[in-house]
Specification:
about 375 residues, 2,3-Dihydroxybiphenyl 1,2-Dioxygenase, domain 1, 2 domains, ten-stranded mixed β-sheet, eight-stranded mixed β-sheet, 7 helices, 18 strands, about 20% helix, about 30% strand, dioxygenase
Length: about 375
């Protein structure tokens, strides 16, 4: 293994465990907050299609469970039709204090979550502060656990040390977004994917904060920076324990009439088998199975050509959809993306890396900005 330190990494020359000052490996994606007016559709999507457990707190608040945590997804009534908050679980109070010291030390304001906010998210205490693209970031250490097993159509979701999945964002300032999560969580670059979509070259960066290959994916156009996605989040991912769980969710999504964005396929970088569905709010939801787990002693970032080894065929996108994405992309030229500059700093620029030997096929005909990692 090379002993050269990579941008955004805290890598020791001898490949030994992370230095004590770093919080890498002590951070886990804990929950997401979604604002929507489509509660009935979301309940059908989460329970009947994806196969999660639902608890209705009141007519304006719905929670999904995937494991012993009382809440993994909090849906609150509102107009955004988007993810509004990312909640990060930190291993202990020392890690919590380190992260908050970094935020406050940069002059970024923090706010203690109210007792009601904590109860709705199923945590004992939380702290809130601004994040990229206007997505509030929240950190907590102790989730509320529910002793009653979740009632689900899926046999089991994979959470644990890798957290509950990942979030993918499109960005006009990918260096700033990488800088933000490097400052906050010592995020490490897992790899890149270069993909051509509708003639536009995309570069996708995959950032990890623990053993999961990535908890954050950041996609951007090469050359002129465009953001063709209406929502802050392009897609989110959950991982199921069994192949039958993924296949079952895929069948239920189609049978219930929810849109499929990309059919079943396998990714080039983390080797996950997955498909992408359209949520009631418009962003995509990836259900995946069997991604690799990163070995910190041997892992080296490379660039893959194309997001898929096979499959992930686009489904159902129309000319109108493409025109709407083009309009949104042009609009992003005059909108300044929120990056929280005190934490993003100068950002972390991409560097050229050799193409992986196992790179997948290039897909010049892929017709829309879907399934970005």
């Amino acid at each position: 293994m090379s002993t050269t330190s990579l941008p955004g990494h805290d890598v020791e020359p001898d490949g030994l465990p992370t230095p004590p000052a770093s919080v890498f490996g002590r951070v886990h994606l804990g929950y997401l907050v979604i604002e929507t007016q489509r509660m009935t559709d979301w309940r059908r999507f989460g329970v009947d299609a994806v196969g999660m457990h639902a608890d209705e707190l009141d007519r304006d608040t719905l929670r999904f469970r995937m494991d012993e945590h009382a809440c993994r997804f909090l849906l609150e009534r509102g107009p955004a039709e988007d993810v509004t908050t990312i909640g990060w679980q930190l291993d202990d109070h020392d890690t919590f204090d380190r992260v908050i010291d970094r935020v406050r030390g940069a002059g970024v304001p923090t706010a203690e979550g109210t007792a009601e906010q904590a109860a709705r998210r199923g945590v004992e205490r939380l702290l809130r502060f601004p994040g990229p693209k206007g997505i509030t970031q929240e950190v907590f250490t102790r989730p509320v656990l529910d002793e009653a097993p979740p009632v689900m159509r899926t046999s089991r979701f994979v959470t644990g040390e890798g957290g509950m999945g990942h979030v993918a964002l499109t960005s006009t300032n990918p260096a700033g977004l990488r800088g933000y999560y490097d400052t906050l969580f010592d995020a490490r670059l897992s790899d890149y994917i270069d993909e051509t979509i509708s003639g536009v070259i995309l570069k996708i960066r995959f950032l990890r904060v623990n053993e999961r290959h990535h908890s954050i994916a950041v996609a951007s156009t090469q050359g002129v920076r465009l953001d063709p996605i209406r929502t802050r989040v392009q897609h989110l991912n959950v991982q199921v324990a069994e192949l039958d769980d993924m296949v079952g969710a895929y069948q239920r999504i189609k049978e219930l009439g929810f849109g499929v964005a990309l059919a079943v396929g396998q990714h080039t970088n983390d080797r996950e088998l997955s498909f992408y569905a359209q949520t009631p709010s418009g962003f995509e939801w990836e259900v995946g199975w069997n991604p690799l787990v990163v070995d910190e002693k041997t892992w080296e970032p490379v660039t893959h050509r194309g997001i898929s080894v096979w499959g992930h065929t686009p489904v159902g996108q129309t000319v109108i959809d493409k025109l709407n994405q083009f309009r949104l992309g042009l609009g992003s030229l005059i909108r300044e993306e929120e990056v929280v500059l005190p934490l993003a700093g100068a950002g972390i620029e991409d560097y050229v890396r050799e193409v992986a030997p196992s790179a997948g096929r290039a897909q010049p005909g892929r017709p829309g900005f879907t399934g970005l990692g």
